[in-house]
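User:
I would dearly like some help making sense of a protein record. Take your time, and here it is.
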Amino acid sequence: MHAWPASEVPALPGQGRDLRIHDTATGGLVTLDPGPVARLYVCGITPYDATHMGHAATYNAFDLVQRVWLDTKRQVHYVQNVTDVDDPLLERAVRDGVDWTALAEQETALFREDMTALRMLPPQHYVGAVEAIPGIVPLVERLRDAGAAYELEGDTYFSVEADPHFGSVSNLDAAAMRLLSAERGGDPGRPGKKNPLDPMLWMAAREGEPSWDGASLGRGRPGWHIECVAIALDHLGMGFDVQGGGSDLAFPHHEMGASHAQALTGEFPMAKAYVHAGMVGLDGEKMSKSKGNLVFVSQLRREGVDPAAIRLALLAHHYRSDWEWTDQVLRDALARLERWRAAVSRPDGPSAEALVEQIREALANDLDSPAALDAVDSWAALQQETGGTDPGAPGVVSRTADALLGVAL
């Protein structure tokens, strides 16, 4: 599966700072010190509907992570999956009377278009669950043969007790885990499981649903969590720098994935930091496909909204915060974009050297994009009030906004 084209990232003078970011597993800020190549895995979409603002906010957060690392002169090895076979996709295809593969291809293509428009840097490896199945099956067999998995009525489950570190990502108690498992795709009430929290690794073929050859597992399809584990281990290995996604993935998805990988390899941890973006709401509720309360990136683009304004609307909120999408949020972003473009359109302006360092400092401090926007606002206001005599300043500001914030002026 191919990703989307990369926008050019302008080179800036000097060098960025190492990133301090909130790690869900430890509950505090950690300073990341990758080697020459920083390794990032971000969980991708289940392509049964268009990209909404919640998706965009999550991928914007990890785009900033990439940009901060690139500014430190590191390379970034970024991997993202596409869950192109799963219950929500199959259910939507049945509801709409369309082929599930065509639906997945259609929505994945639209996602690529949205990411391109928003100037999100693409992953080096963009991998669908279906294409990963040949690598998933041997991992499930290894877990089973090691006693970390078991069969139940043809399905294969992972035993959470096989990983002594289970629970160390989300730090939730058993009652909270069981509640979230039921809400987020698990089946804690199924009779016969060794532990109600045990997640499915391989689902035996169901009538009328797609299935693949699972060798000794029989025909079926992979569970949700093992998909990402197989892709991450294949392309990044254990101990990669950041596992990312929305805050609703901390449990069960990232918790279970970490335990799968740790049971497979005997190594800990799967990732050095587990980083989670907040949820975007609309009309008082989390924006989600299941609720249907969505604002789509593609719809805004069709209405003529500049993607740079959409990006500024996202950047105006700290990535870890939960926030509400409103018409005013977009109006504010459009006004900010107009001010910034007017400021950099002048032939000269106030010196921008300090501004570059202010933005670097803000982003290195747990991706504080609102502080970065405030810094540019202050420069633009000074440009408006007094102007300046530095002919290079507008260009420096424009390149910095592009390189570090992904905003094309």
User: Anything to note?
Assistant: The longest strand covers residues 75-82. Residues 176 and 256 are 15 Å apart (CA to CA). The mean pLDDT is 96. The chain has 13 helices and 14 strands.
